[in-house]
Amino acid sequence: MSNTQSNFVKVADLKDVPEGTPKAVRVEGRSIALFQHQGNVYATDNQCPHMGYPLTRGRVRNGVLTCDWHGWSYDMRGGGCFTGGCDDLDTFPVEVRDSAIYIDVRSGRSRRKDAHFLLLKEGLLSEDNWTLSKAIAIMLAQGVSEQDTLKRVVQHLGRHIATERGANDGGRELALMVNGVKVARHYAPDDRLIPLMMAATGASGRAGDRPAVQPLPPPVTWDKLEHWIRVFSADKTWEGIEKCLITARRLGGHDERIVPLLYECALEPFFLGHTENLPLLGYLAESLEEFGWDQVEELVCNLAAKILGRDRGAPEELRLAAIKMFEPIHTLIDELASTSPRDQGATYDEDALSRGLVSGDLTQTFNVISDALRARVDIDRIVTTMVLLAADRMARTPVNLNPGWGSLRQELVLASSVRTALRYGGLNVGARALYHAAWQFFSDRWLNITPRSLTEPLSAARSDASNEDTGLRTVLDSIETIQVREVGRHTREYLNAGFSGDRLLSEMGQSILRDDNGWSLVHALRTVFDEWKLCEGHPARNQLLAGLARWATDVRKRTGSQSAAQTAQRFARGQTAVDLYES
């Protein structure tokens, strides 16, 4: 029975809710908790805003409702939370008429719909994954702007790194934030929570105060700033680099020149072996492209300065020998850059390049890159070979000893990052980046992986599954039951049967994310998503999925991320533990 003059709805008789015996009722799809306490009747959301436990199972004392699970407490009338930062409780107007209880859920004090940004800020500062999960889940469930949310995340990351982190830790957090977002965008909104939560986790941490970096007083020119940035990078003086970058921004008119300059500094020979520089600059460039200078100036200027001005130590013998080889390499690249453009149809011995990269001979490793460039081979084609060589090695590395997963992942990510360097830095930068990627293959000469031709197909054995669903389940079961020796073969047989690789990659990614915290796997997953499209048509393309499956199966941490994600999603929809207990 409802009152036609208002939104009040009869939900129970007063005798059904005696003092000390709460009652849960369902109104317009919501579970509402009714309490009679000290002569008054109260109506609140039955879901604890912390983690969704039914509040009808809580305790009431002096107008304070306390959840029995984690002890969070709330003002029964106003809903204010005494325990958490911003997790107030929804409360609803109550009227008692003729010994019947009426409540108005439509004009009640609803907290959660506008708590998203407060929860996000609290989670970012506290590094609490559950708070971050709730904030992201609310965003997804209620259609809050993802872009507005991510702007807040990336701004927090900039301040956090500027005040709390150096190049190494800051770089890892940037990578997790950017790659978490990139992976999330391969999925529908309902499946984005885990990678977006990982992205927010990467950006979380203390964010202190420091005086704003002031630009250099005039007169100063771009040419002078460019020179100083190069000098400070060579001298390992990151504060000077940041000062110059801020000054360049204030000068105006030079924003498009900053990222190419950062790449040029990162590709100086003395950075050989610092293979994280290329991917990190790519992530900064992608952040800048998406959010603009106004949002990420502090992040780009501070972290780029710390990357380029980091302490490097004296190079060991082999790296010193490689550094000395760069003078003729730079001459070659300058000459090629001034002549005709790359030729996508140039004659190209891809297997010769692959053999040279893993030859274990430094001169040969660099020479095969130089030979390909002299032949005018397009840089993207060279990168495809390097990416698929890394994937093929991941797909075939022995697992009885140390399989070298970290090194193989770095080969894959670094090779792919050359494409990003080419895009944002131009041909000269892309060509130089090839040698830094080649160094990684040379450094991994200790790996016990027999070379093979990338242009020759592997076994043509096909899955005997009767349909794609069954074949997919075979691969996923191999991942989930940690069958490292079998999962690569199952993946290839699935693909050889003509089943969808796009679907397999999507399902495999979800399986990986459900059971890992993302600190390492999400980077390779993002790279495989990118390269699966870019390497289409290549005979070794399937090794991308086989390599990812083997590696992810062996190294995942089985953290149960899916359970936390499902809890947060149910919470955002008002369906958490209440439904489980009521059912």
Task: Describe the protein's architecture and organization.
The protein has 5 domains: 9-111, Rieske Iron-sulfur Protein; 115-203; 222-308; 325-443, no CATH class; 468-563. Helices cover 56% and strands 7% of the residues. It is built from 24 helices and 10 strands. The protein has a 4-stranded antiparallel sheet, with no helix packed on it. A 3-stranded antiparallel sheet has the order 1-10-9, with no helix packed on it. The two termini are 25 Å apart. The model has no long low-confidence stretch (mean pLDDT 90).
Write a brief caption for the model.
This protein is an alpha+beta fold. It is built from 24 helices and ten strands.
The tally of beta strands, per DSSP, is: 10
Count of folded domains: 5
Question: End-to-end distance, in Å?
Answer: 25 Å
Helix content: 55-70%
Radius of gyration from the alpha-carbon trace, in angstroms: 29 Å
What would the average pLDDT be, to the nearest integer?
Answer: 90
Overall geometry comes to: globular
Please tally the helical runs, counting DSSP H or I stretches of 4 or more residues: 24
Decide which structural class fits the backbone: alpha+beta
Q: Can you list the strand order of the major beta sheet?
A: 2-3-4-8
Low-pLDDT residue spans: none
> Strand portion, in percent?
5-15%
